[in-house]
Amino acid sequence: MDAQRYQNILVGIDGSEQAKDAFKKAVEVARRNQGKVYAATIIDQQMPTMMGYAPLDSSILEQEKDTAQKMIDECKAYAKSVDFALVEGVIAYGSIKDALATQLPDEYNIDLIMVGQSGLNAVERFMMGSVASFVIREARCDVLIVSPQDA
């Protein structure tokens, strides 16, 4: 049986340390497999409404896009610092869970999804459930959950 070669690796980034750890590990997996990393941040347009706030207006959406782009730029800077160039930034809109589990993997022919163990605080996990556990259940490709480094 041939070993799996992961050519297209998707990493969800949200600014958390767990997501940063997952991205760093994804870079190393991609390097070993001559693959590419897709650093994705998802803007959940439903979250403000669920939390009792008004829907996203264009200025809030622009702020979210700017924040997402900064996270992607940080990922690219890290990759460059370790001599790895095959990183593509992705900004998607919609459900974080669906985007990571099915939408983006289908769109980018992803064969491995890497996510940090938890990028959410306790209240968010209670309200939305664990993104990682949803991705594990719903993804049609391999999933690697990256545990915190200082555990």
From TrEMBL:
Protein name (record): Universal stress protein
UniProt domain UspA: residue ranges: 6-146
Subcellular location: Cytoplasm
Similarity annotation: Belongs to the universal stress protein A family.
Entries under Pfam families matching the protein: Usp
GTP-binding as UniProt keyword: no
InterPro entries reported in the protein's UniProt record: Rossmann-like_a/b/a_fold, Universal_stress_UspA, UspA
Cellular component terms (Gene Ontology): cytoplasm
